[in-house]
Design goal:
Elements: E1 5-10, E2 13-18, H1 28-43, E3 49-54, H2 77-84, E4 91-95, E5 98-100, H3 102-108, E6 112-115, E7 120-122, H4 136-144, H5 146-155, E8 159-160, H6 161-167, E9 172-173, H7 178-192, H8 207-211, H9 214-225, H10 231-245, H11 248-263, H12 266-281, E10 299-302, H13 306-317, E11 322-325, H14 329-349, H15 354-361, E12 364-367, E13 378-381, H16 387-400, E14 406-409, H17 416-420, E15 429-434, E16 443-447, H18 454-466, E17 470-474, H19 482-490, H20 493-499, H21 503-513, H22 519-526, H23 528-537, H24 543-550, H25 576-588, H26 598-603, H27 606-618, H28 625-635, H29 645-652, H30 654-668, H31 677-684
Parallel strand pairs: 2-3, 3-4, 4-6, 5-7, 6-9, 10-11, 10-13, 11-12, 13-14, 14-15, 16-17
Antiparallel strand pairs: 1-2, 7-8, 15-16
Helix pairs in contact: 1-2, 4-5, 4-10, 5-9, 5-10, 9-10, 10-11, 12-28, 13-14, 19-27, 24-25, 30-31
The chain binds (2S,3S)-3-hydroxy-2-methylbutanoyl-COA (T1G).
Residues 22-23, 25, 58, 61-66, 77, 98, 100-102, 105, 124-125, 128, 130, 132-134, 136, 276, 279 line the site of (2S,3S)-3-hydroxy-2-methylbutanoyl-COA.
């Protein structure tokens, strides 16, 4: 391990360099020597000014998240900032890479900040279910103004160096060497003489808000409306409001109380679990750092429908040229027109510039000929979900694609090994299962075939990172991880309705938990006819959903499904016709309807889903429980404040879940309730899924 803190001199300027790989997290290991060095430099008469810089790929990326939940060793970050704020000689933070969370708070303890042009600055604590706990909610508003600071703190999204400069968050951007620029900058400040204003003393950006909080309140209401049960965004709002209304030290004290309350809460534990789970998911057995991914310069996508178009956009958005193949000119033109329309909507919403749109559109080429895919490094098939159709496509790809090209299928259920068997190169075939809308949804289920080569997996993983997706590698089974568990979650929904629950009651339980929508509203959004066609093709039935489809109620697309959607609105409204249909179906089956509690709805939807997750772990379709959490949070809207189904199961307690599964198995005889061996074992030992892989939370 390198020396965590080194001090060098450039004349009267002292340069303090922090070095705690990989991201200079502010572990105690770094804080203690840093505080000691700062004290020395403060009292050293030969030192005129101080530069705070970091070695490695980034400035401080925050407090050390692995230290949360443990007794905090002093000096803590607030002590460090307090020490910095006793300096009467000027101090400057030299920022490169990402100054995040406690890292930015440390920089706000300096008199000045100089940034590298590519630097990013942010307070992402809200994504960990907490808020900035070392003065960020009190100091940032003093530099940016309360409304801008509120948006930055509640979104957790970092700003660029350019935005930071124009907003007053940094004082200069280095054209040449960052540290050299910072040394010159602070030497000039020292020469010019003090006093040097601390951020905490700045008030000019708060004055206006003190007299009129309208803009702040409007922004706050908007954010609170979207919080969906998460506590951290609301605490952020109150703490930033305090920065305007209260004296600095009082605001700081209350910020700390918010922090202490949140960091020990289940929501933050869940979100910290997801932070580490996302990084663990990228560590795949047999695909170590030594396995080199193949170079992907051009991508082909087969099928320009909803999925194909979204997948193609993901690549163009990352600057990778895409060839889109369709069977007819009409289909191709329709697909390209939809893509263009999507970009136009983004421009009209201001989330994309006209110039960026033009650049992205220029990366698309369309074709009807497989020969035009010969020079693609990766080809992703997104055609109709039927095995024979997919095998035909892969046989053609096998004939035209160059050796070494990666051949991927976007299948959401089917056996990737069987698809690969249609080629002479199954080792180059992999599943890359995107989620709709593919240019928006973060999750990418990478399906590992029995013969898929390690470097093909490495390629899929690195492509995922390039196009901004969260990858999870899964094995082959029907529906892989996400859809297989989705089926288990839905297995008893119809009976719940027949026995007395209503669609709005069931969906209400899910939105109350923090899901964006419940299973019935989701069915209406996706189109009930999709499931209906597949059930009919496989000789299966669903009493209520089939009856709705026979009545032409396909969901949002027909203005009626489980809900009513008046005049093209997307807001579901309970429909007495559906309630009557359900009662009639129950009567026909002699089902006695009764009160159904919210707890029962959870037990008959989430518990079988968790149980299916345990089966998936037993079969090693997923490598670890946290991978399943990442799949559900990034692909199916599982609330981040609950950490994903397996983390949620541990919070709930496996013994209770197994007991209830046994109960419903006894009552219904349905296999989805038969507790998996792993569930019973862990429950019997008083353990949880986290015990299967160790936890950093
Ligand atoms: N603490 C501990 N470990 C961390 C860490 C952190 N803050 N940040 C990263 N790591 C580990 C990570 O788990 C991984 O480990 C390795 O570093 C590389 O990370 C008081 C309370 C900086 C943008 O939320 O967003 O400050 O898997 O794979 O893709 O107000 O890491 O190799 O064993 O992500 O290049 C606020 C968190 C903390 C930023 C780099 N800060 N980090 O991304 O690498 S709360 C954050 C990131 C706080 C104060 C509060 C990213 C990154 P391993 P990586 P990357």
């Amino acid at each position: 391990m390198p020396e965590p803190v080194t001090v060098t001199r450039d004349g009267g300027v002292a340069i303090v360099t922090l070095d705690n790989p990989p991201v200079n997290a502010l572990s105690f290991h770094l804080r203690e020597p840093l505080n000691a060095a700062l004290f020395d430099l403060r009292d050293d008469p030969t030192v005129d000014a101080v530069v705070l810089a970091c070695a490695g790929r980034t400035f401080v990326a925050g407090a050390d998240i692995t230290e949360f939940g443990k007794p905090m060793l002093r000096p803590d970050l607030r002590d460090l900032i307090e020490t910095l704020e006793t300096f009467t000689k000027p101090t400057v933070a030299a920022i490169h890479g990402t100054a995040l969370g406690g890292g930015l708070e440390l920089a706000l303890g300096c008199h000045f900040r100089v940034a590298d042009p590519a630097a990013k600055l942010g307070l992402p604590e809200v994504k960990l279910g907490i808020l900035p706990g070392a003065g960020g909610t009190q100091r940032l508003p003093r530099l940016l103004g309360p409304v801008k600071a509120l948006k930055m703190i509640t979104s957790g999204v970092p700003v660029s160096a350019g935005e930071a400069l124009s907003g007053g968050l940094v004082d200069a951007i280095a054209e040449g060497d960052l540290v050299a620029t910072a040394v010159d900058f602070i030497r000039d400040k020292a020469a010019a003489g003090g006093p040097y204003a601390l951020v905490r003393e700045r008030d000019d950006k708060l004055g206006e808000a003190r007299t009129d909080m309208t803009a702040f309140d409007a922004a706050a209401d908007e954010i609170a409306r979207k919080a969906r049960g998460l506590e951290a965004p609301l605490a952020c709002i109150e703490s930033v409001r305090n920065s305007v209304l209260l004296p600095f030290d009082e605001g700081l004290k209350r910020e700390r109380q918010f922090f202490v309350d949140l960091v020990s809460g289940d929501q933050s534990k869940a979100q910290r679990h997801l932070f580490f789970a996302e990084r663990e998911a990228a560590k795949v057995e047999g695909v170590g750092r030594e396995v080199k991914s193949r170079e992907i310069r051009r991508v082909g996508v087969i099928g320009a429908g909803t999925m194909g178009g979204g997948i193609a956009m993901s690549f163009a958005n990352a600057g990778i040229p895409v060839t889109l193949l369709e069977t007819t000119t009409e289909a191709l033109e329709r697909g390209l027109a939809t893509i263009d329309r999507n970009y136009a909507i983004s421009v009209s919403r201001g989330s994309l510039t006209e110039d960026a749109r033009a650049k992205r559109v220029a990366l698309f080429s369309g074709t009807l000929s497989y020969d035009d895919l010969a020079d693609c490094d990766l080809v992703i098939e997104a055609v109709f979900e039927e095995m024979e159709v997919k095998k035909e496509v892969f046989a053609k790809l096998d004939r035209v694609c160059r050796p070494g090209a990666v051949l991927a299928s976007n299948t959401s259920y089917l056996d990737v090994d069987e698809i690969a068997s249609a080629t002479s190169r199954p080792e180059d075939v992999v599943g890359m299962h995107f989620f709709s809308p593919a240019n928006v949804m973060k999750l990418l289920e990478i399906v590992r075939g029995t013969r898929t080569r390690a470097d093909v997996l490495a390629t899929a993983l690195s492509v995922a990172k390039k196009i901004g997706k969260v990858p999870v590698v899964v094995g082959i089974c029907y529906g892989f991880v996400g859809n297989r568990m989705l089926q288990a979650r839905g297995a008893d929904l119809e009976d719940l309705l027949l026995e007395g629950a209503t669609p709005e009651q069931v969906d209400g339980v899910f939105t109350e938990l923090g899901f964006p929508m419940g299973p019935f509203a989701m069915g209406d959004l996706a189109g009930l006819d999709v499931g209906w066609r597949s059930r009919r093709a496989h000789g299966k039935t669903a009493v209520i959903a089939d009856a709705l489809c026979e009545a032409g109620r396909y969901g949002q697309k027909t203005g009626k499904g489980f809900y009513l959607y008046e005049n093209g609105s997307r807001t579901p409204r309970a429909d007495p016709e559906v309630a009557a249909l359900i009662e009639e179906k129950a009567r026909e089956r002699g089902v006695n309807r009764r009160e159904i509690s919210e707890q029962e709805i959870v037990e008959r939807t989430l518990y079988p889903m968790i149980n299916e997750g345990a089966r998936i772990l037993e079969e090693r379709i997923a490598a670890r429980p946290s991978d399943i959490d990442i799949v559900w949070v990034n692909g199916y809207g599982f609330p981040v404040g609950k950490g994903g189904p397996m983390f949620f199961a541990d919070l709930t307690g496996l013994q209770d879940i197994v007991a209830r599964l046994d109960h419903w198995h006894g009552r219904t005889g349905k296999d989805v309730y038969a507790p998996a061996g792993l569930m019973r074992k862990l429950a019997g030992e008083g353990r949880g899924f986290a015990d299967l892989q160790g936890s950093k939370v």
